[in-house]
Design brief:
- This protein is an alpha/beta fold.
- The protein folds into 2 domains: about 5-405, TIM Barrel; about 410-440.
- It is built from 18 helices and 8 strands.
- An 8-stranded parallel beta sheet has the order 1-2-3-4-5-6-7-8.
- It is globular.
Length: about 450
């Protein structure tokens, strides 16, 4: 870290495209809400909860997920959802995150008195309030700095149990004679329809549809119908895949569910993680899969600390597949996953990549700018392009502040952005010329 100061990382404009709302509560807020809603905690101090629930390392994924049992229990009212979303946006703003995509499973918070649209409206109110307050700053209004923007990603669950929420309990009770996989599929279909309605009828910034939960035994193609609904309605798709299962899971996500991005993707290029007996040439399989993902610029949402905490075979970050993904020129961006459960921030994740995975200044800019370019930005494509240009310019100004004017540092992303801008300008000139030629 001697060459890249910590203050530089904080000041840089950043994205977090993979952060779970229910995994990112402020601990003092969790304690306060637990007291208010009579949810029992193993400790009512932050240090106690860090020791007993939200740890630095976990024995397994089950222990990692334990904390969600407490957070979701207190996120059962509109006021609690709005507050948690507002504070999450503030925490990201405080460390220089300028674009945030918050994801969560609305059906974990639904009950007799609160449907999916009400849940999404409550979360949006919190995010919108934080955005409007931040963007009221003079530096934003003058154009000196890029504004804070956000989108909401709706998560369907690969599997669930009655105890997960009142909604799931009611659904499974109503379909008690149906196979569980049919009920999982039904819930996903209902959620996809709700997401489209929330976006189109209520103008909420629902930008993406996701599939989360346990991979092993719960294949992505069980949810094809729901993702087809999202796909046909121009809703972007991201899928948790390759986190706790092999490359086959990622293959399903991109071929059956039309995934535009992959959450985690840790085992994308790991032939030893393939368990499908029908795949005989494993090395060729991962090579072709990697080429497919790279060629289509399907971005991998990398979550370093989370992967280290939930993977018992990974003893330190130097063993993470991130370097291999970068060597294959795959589109990658670094995310937090769960700020509270993993006890991390976006700046800390970038610092870890620099310290353990040989990320230099050139890599850093590529990783960060890819986050903005591959985001599911809620505005028009032209507005997104303008926003990304503003981000790149601001990034360069921060870099110059810390390192002075640097030459020869133009990345492929800069070139790509400029080439597309030239094409747009030429196109406009041609239109003007054509109009002039037909004007008497």
């Amino acid at each position: 870290m001697s060459k890249i100061p910590e203050g530089f990382l904080k000041d840089l404009p950043k994205t977090d495209l993979h952060v779970h709302l229910d995994g990112s509560l402020r601990i003092p807020t969790l304690i306060e809400l637990c007291r208010e809603y009579h949810v029992e905690l193993p400790s009512y101090t932050e240090s106690g909860l860090r020791e007993l629930v939200f740890k630095e390392r976990y024995q397994n994924l089950g222990e990692y997920l334990r904390g969600f049992g407490y957070t979701t229990k207190v996120m059962q009212s509109e006021l609690a959802l709005e507050r948690v979303a507002y504070e999450l946006a503030q925490d990201n703003q405080d460390e220089g995150v300028r674009y945030l995509e918050v994801r969560f499973a609305p059906q974990l918070h639904m009950h007799e008195h609160m449907n999916a649209v009400m849940v999404l409206k409550a979360v949006n109110r919190g995010l919108q309030k934080a955005r409007d307050e931040y963007n009221a700053r003079e530096a934003i209004k003058s154009g000196a700095e890029p504004p804070f923007e956000y989108g909401i990603i709706v998560c369907a669950m690969r599997m669930f149990q009655p105890g997960f929420s009142e909604y799931y309990r009611s659904l499974m009770s109503a379909h008690r004679y149906s196979p569980p996989k049919e009920i999982y599929n039904l819930a996903s279909i209902e959620l996809a329809r709700a997401a489209v309605i929330a976006r189109d009828r209520y103008d909420l910034p629902v930008v993406g549809f996701d599939l989360a939960g346990e991979e092993a035994g719960y294949p992505a193609d069980d949810h094809m119908h729901a993702f087809q609904i999202a796909h046909k309605n121009f809703l972007k798709k991201t899928v948790h895949a390759g986190e706790a299962y092999g490359p086959e899971s990622i293959f399903q996500a991109i071929t059956e569910l039309h995934a535009d991005r992959i959450g985690h993707g840790t085992y994308l290029l790991d032939k030893d993680s393939i368990s499908d007996p029908n795949i005989t040439d494993k090395e060729q399989y991962v090579e072709q899969l990697g080429e497919y993902v790279a060629d289509r610029r399907i971005t991998i949402e990398v979550c370093l600390t989370s992967n280290l905490q939930t993977n018992p075979t990974m003893t330190d970050l130097s063993q993470h597949s991130f370097q291999l993904l970068r060597q294959h020129r795959l589109s990658t961006t670094i995310c937090t996953d769960n700020r509270t459960v993993s006890n991390t921030t976006l700046s800390r994740e970038l610092e870890l990549a620099i310290k353990h995975l040989d990320v230099d200044l050139h890599d850093l800019k590529s990783i960060i700018v890819y986050g903005f370019k591959r985001s599911f930005f809620p505005g028009t494509y032209l507005r997104k392009r303008k926003y990304v240009r503003q981000i790149i310019d601001y990034y360069d100004s921060v870099e110059e502040k810390y390192f002075g004017k640097r030459t020869g540092h133009e990345t492929e992303l800069d070139k790509e952005h400029e080439e597309n801008t030239v094409i747009e300008v030429v196109g406009k000139k041609k239109k003007v010329a054509a109009k002039a030629a037909t004007t008497p």
